[in-house]
UniProtKB/TrEMBL annotation:
Record-given protein name: non-specific serine/threonine protein kinase
EC number annotated for this UniProt entry: 2.7.11.1
Boundaries of every Protein kinase domain copy: 22-276
InterPro entries, alphabetized: Kinase-like_dom_sf, NAF/FISL_domain, NAF_dom, Prot_kinase_dom, Protein_kinase_ATP_BS, Ser/Thr_kinase_AS
């Protein structure tokens, strides 16, 4: 069975379509649990990269947590120097990351062809710091910054990718530090090696220093075929700058690769450094992210990332299955039409109908001992997510009213394709 079996439509001998939306192209790369393809959005003509992940291969492993974290983080980051995650799709066995396609490829490949000039290295580093500072301001720490996770577009602009090892503020312990050991050996900060906890922003700055050195030197500052020897060099901060480095760059690197995280330069200090500031223009962009509103009182516009947050596991196909006291599923139609149907059924069944602000309806038994809350979230112009919750009533009564009376009416009220839509989820 192929990677894309469940969602493929063979239009011709040379065309493969995913979800009736993306025309799949050439294989860009593959790993132990994922493959990345070039694809084209058939509606807009836009090129995208689609990472296909096998749920079976990552189930019950740390990779499952990594994938969920990456979705959660990338969905909230909107910066011109960070690869954009357009949407996440899923079937019973696969997860599909639909991402911005970067034509230029990995920064690692560019460096392998020859070192950059100091001015070009500075321009790339300025974009890197702009994106890293943006992440830190939102409580996100990448923790695996390296040329392999940095892409260049056709205009030579930097794009950070692969947030699978990232951490967020919620992971910080009571001592104010992170403790998970991660990263790539040659780019890992010395404080990670001692296993006493570390500051996420400081280890990212260290990795940025390594990247800057590699950009302008063409090789790593700390390197050895013996891993323990390399770690000792990192811990002691033993490196030498090549003769073509300017005095200003040497001084700047000594602050970036300061082994003591307390005295290591910060992102705010980097922005004020004379070497860094040369030719620097603050990157201005439109902030797309939105603050999450608490409760369900306001209109909800949901995307795939919000749906994923509903799930307790990675089996996205089970997101809309019935649980003990709630259910979520997808319908075609408008929020207004769905709630009108709920109200009509409620009145027929002699419930007290209470309209919540915007897209919510609560049904109560006349004696107050029965309650169902129905909230509708707009997913697209044509599709909504319906969430139904039991409100203090007997589970048997809830299932009887919901499954036998209300739910069938919702499906009947929509188009004939609603059964198929819900089933596909």
């Amino acid at each position: 069975m192929s990677e894309i079996e469940e969602v493929v439509v063979e239009n011709s001998a040379s065309t493969t379509t995913l979800f009736d939306k993306y025309e799949l192209g050439r294989l860009l790369g593959c790993g132990a649990f994922a493959k990345v393809y070039h694809a084209r959005n058939m509606e807009t003509g836009e090129s995208v990269a689609i990472k296909i992940i096998s749920k079976k291969k990552i189930a019950g492993t740390d990779l499952a947590t990594s994938v969920k974290r990456e979705v959660s983080i990338m969905s909230q980051l909107h910066h011109p120097n960070i690869v954009k995650l357009h949407e996440v799709l899923a079937t019973k066995s696969k997860i599909y990351f639909v991402m911005e396609f970067i034509k230029g490829g990995e920064l690692f490949t560019k460096i392998a062809k020859g070192r950059f000039s100091e001015d070009l290295g500075r321009r790339i580093f300025q974009q890197l710091i702009s994106a890293v500072g943006y992440c830190h301001s939102r409580g996100v720490f990448h923790r695996d910054l390296k040329p392999e996770n940095l892409l260049l577009d056709e205009n030579g602009n930097l794009k950070i990718t692969d947030f699978g090892l990232s951490a967020v503020k919620d992971q910080i312990r009571t001592d104010g530090l992170l403790h998970t050991l991660c990263g790539t050996p040659a780019y890992v900060a010395p404080e990670i090696l001692v296993k006493r906890g570390y500051n996420g922003s400081k280890v990212d700055v260290w990795s940025c220093g390594i990247i800057l050195f590699v950009l302008v030197a063409g090789y790593l500052p700390f390197n050895d075929t013996n891993l323990m020897v390399m770690y000792k060099k990192i811990y002691k901060g033993e490196f030498r700058c090549p003769r073509w480095f300017s005095p200003e760059l040497r001084r700047f690197l000594s602050r970036l690769l300061e082994t003591n995280p307390v005295t290591r330069i910060t992102v705010d200090e980097i922005l004020k450094d004379p070497w860094f500031k040369k030719g620097y223009k603050e990157i201005k962009f439109h902030e797309e992210w939105k603050e999450n509103n608490e409760g369900m009182e306001n209109v909800k516009e949901l995307n795939a990332f919000d749906i994923i947050s509903f799930s307790s596991g990675l089996n996205l196909s089970g997101l809309f299955s019935v649980v003990e006291d709630s259910e979520r599923f997808v319908l075609r139609g408008s929020p207004e039409k769905v709630l009108e149907t709920v109200e009509e059924v409620g009145k027929v069944e002699k419930f007290v109908v209470k309209r919540r602000k915007e897209y919510g309806v609560e049904l109560e038994g006349v004696n107050g001992n029965f309650g169902i809350l129905v909230v509708v979230y707009r997913l697209t112009e044509e599709v909504v997510v319906v969430e139904v919750k039991r409100r203090g009533c007997d589970i048997v009564a809830f299932k009887d009213v919901w499954m036998n009376k209300l739910r069938p009416c919702l499906f009947d009220a929509g188009s004939s394709s609603n059964q198929q839509v819900a089933g596909d989820c």
